[in-house]
Amino acid sequence: MKPILGIMAVALVLTGCNQNEPPGQPVKEFRVVAPSAVTTIRQNSSQSIDLSLERDPSFQQIVSLKAEALKGLSVSFRPPVVKPADDPRISLEITADPYAPLGEHSITVIGTPDSGAKTSVPVRVKVMPSR
Fold first, then answer.
1. CATH of the domain at 83
2. φ, ψ of residue 15 in degrees (nearest 5)
3. How much is the mean pLDDT over the chain?
4. In this predicted model, what pLDDT tens digit does every residue of 15-62 receive, in sequence order?
5. CB within 10 Å: which end of the chain, N or C, has fewer?
6. Does residue 68 contact residue 110 with C-beta atoms inside 8 Å?
């Protein structure tokens, strides 16, 4: 009889551990929005792409931006960090060096909040030969 009581006590403790978050609380989220169309860029030139940061009304964290790009493509953000009161528009500047590989490629834009899960979005670019 004692082993059954021990199992019941453990079961009660485990179910009580799930009470950390009050029911009905909104999820605090954000996302980075990028154009779905492919952006064309020529070797040895630069191109700006407009992105935006969409926030759930309750999401009040600073979001840092970074990108993962193919060798031959360099990227920078204006601004690189978006605060809750900032304009949600972001400019992504892409520069293709003279030897950037030709063809269609994907740049991954990553938004990382102060705490919580980061999010990412692909930005498609097509590198053309310089004129």
1. 2.60.40.10
2. -70, -30
3. 84
4. 223 333 344 444 469 999 999 999 999 999 999 999 999 999 889 999
5. N
6. yes
